[in-house]
Amino acid sequence: MPSTAARVVLVTGVSRFLGARVANTLQADPRIERVIGVDTVPPATSLGRTEFVRVDIRTPSIAKVISSAEVDTVVHLNLVTSPSVPRAKVKEFNVIGTMQLLAACQRSPDTRKLVVRSSAAVYGSSPMDPAVFAEDDEPVEAPTSGYAKDAVEVEGFVRGLCRRRSDLKVSVLRFANFLGPGVDSPLTRYLRMPVVPTVLGFDPRLQFVHEDDGIEVLRRMTVEDHPGTYNVAGDGVLLLSQALRRAGRSYVPLPSQTIAAAGDAGRRFAGLSGFSPELLRWLTYGRVLDTRRLETELSWMPKYTTEAAFADFVSARLPSRSAPLQLLERLMARRPT
User: Between β-strands 177-179 and 228-232, what pairing exists: parallel, antiparallel or unpaired?
Assistant: First the structure.
């Protein structure tokens, strides 16, 4: 699709892994004059020529940054998913922060494009789900708590902005769970447990997106014009039992109530992230996405399948295990060039 190259790009959440990688990728593009990264704390890693501005998007100060820098493209990655952060604070960042950011975009005459990181969690997880979720499908059981509910609200605010600023090009990306060597998340911490609890009587179908593919999708959405809502995931699925066997993890089936209680105890006494309700439902019922809209729009497919993304994560985080590395090599050799 024809597009005008982004000139000044603002990236939220640059002190976290995804935001830092996206900022570093965009600042390497010579067509982009400036990349401005914002967060409440300084990033732990270098952002190259990206200009860091310490600002809280929950405050009106974000509007001043967007206005003074004449930002034309906003990449909103500041969706907090960790259950280790107090729920009230998470909701403030996800919901109030997005409201302030979108209000700033609405008022800025320079802003013409918005890219929003959302989550496949907006579809929920239930025993009555369709085999595959397409972008136009409604959840059978809408999320009622946690970051999944926040993501639903965020998308609602974005639709409202589109009605008020029909000239904006807005891309909403519903990502499956990220995996890869650099990803640290409730899911990766779950997979690294010495003995992994699974929900008794269930073996969910899971999908992942490799961090490199997620970054590439965000890059393309920023430098090209692809308005709309898109599912993002690696091709194929893995059963949870398959994933754990391939990772060489010991696991024990437990009632869901026991897992939830154990996760809460781990958070209090061992510094673990715990099991959020949405993570526990996903580990019970799973979720599979239809990604044909994205692949057709971009004329592109993720480099990593779901299996390959999982194998790369296991090989990097558990280097003593050679089987996942051998599996990754076989899977990548079969991918089209």
Answer: unpaired
Q: What span, in angstroms and rounded, lies between the C-alpha atoms of 117 and 92?
A: 17
pLDDT of 268 reads: 47
pLDDT of residue 272: 45
**String of b and e for 262-279 (b: at least 16 CB within 10 Å)?**
bbeebeeeeebbbbbbbb
CA angle 240, 244, 246 (to 5 degrees): 115
> What is the reported pLDDT for 179?
97
The domains found in the chain, sorted by start residue, are: 8-180+209-234+289-303 (3.40.50.720)
| DSSP codes joined into one string, 104-131 | HHHH-SS--EEEEEEEGGGG---TT--S
Q: pLDDT tens, 107-136? A: 999 999 999 999 999 999 999 999 999 999
pTM of the model: 0.91
Q: Which residues lie closer than 8 Å to 257 by C-beta, 6 or more apart?
A: none
Task: Let me know: does 173 contact 218? Beta carbons within 8 Å.
Answer: yes
Whether the CB-CB separation of 174 and 229 falls below 8 Å is answered with yes
Low-confidence ranges of the chain (pLDDT < 70): 1-5, 82-85, 262-274, 318-337
- Which pLDDT does position 257 carry in this prediction? 87
Alpha-helical segments (H) within the chain: 17-27, 61-68, 87-91, 97-107, 146-164, 186-191, 211-223, 240-246, 256-269, 277-285, 292-298, 306-317, 322-334
> What pLDDT is stored for residue 79 in this prediction?
85
Half-sphere exposure of 11 (CA within 13 A, CB side): 32
Residue 170 dihedral angles phi and psi, to the nearest 5°:
-120, 125
Residue 136 CA, distance from chain mean position: 19
Beta strands 205-206 and 238-239 are antiparallel
Distance, CA of 40 to CA of 238 (rounded, Å)? 37
- Supply 247's token pair: 């990772």
CB 213 within 8 A of CB 302: yes
